[in-house]
Amino acid sequence: MRDRLVILGAGGHGRALIELLRDLPGHEVVGLVDARPPAAPVLGVPVLGDESALPGLLAAGCRQACIAIGDNAARLAAGARLEAMGFLLPALCHPSAILARSAEVGPGAVLLPRVVLGALARVGRLAILNTGAIAEHDTVVGEGAHVGPGAVLAGGVRVGARALVGAGAACRPYVGIGEAAVVGVGAAVVAEVPPGQSVGGVPARALR
Q: Where is the PglD N-terminal domain (predicted)?
């Protein structure tokens, strides 16, 4: 029996999740909801309206949801709303992802194609590891964080809640990236990044 699932968000990340779920057996996407719902289906998936459609879906037996919102804080807030309604937020891992047996992935987290998680790596609730991202041994990716395509977190890196690590960035072993910090595209992080700080460049330095 396939699990019926609704996607919250009909933009680019929603399209990525549709493709992920089509490669992942055991799930049936019943539709999308969005604050500004497009009129046309998205990749053939019907758009069911805005969040006011969710209670009816839950009553009809659709008990699982995934959050396709790129903004980290907004994604966490949406997850809290859906959980309060009674939805379950399954972790979604593309079949091409490589996960060490000791790695842990929290509720609502999304691992897109070719992600690699090393030994004892931990991915928090509603975090995103985008296509080709690598989180090596003992790395911790916090709640609602986003690790961009092709980014590399060496062993023991700590990414705080709601932080963003841009596409192609690289972090040296055991460095810390604070809550809600932003690491720019292609940056090389060799020193601690304070909470809320934006950094970029090689080596990464604070941005104004």
A: 4-76
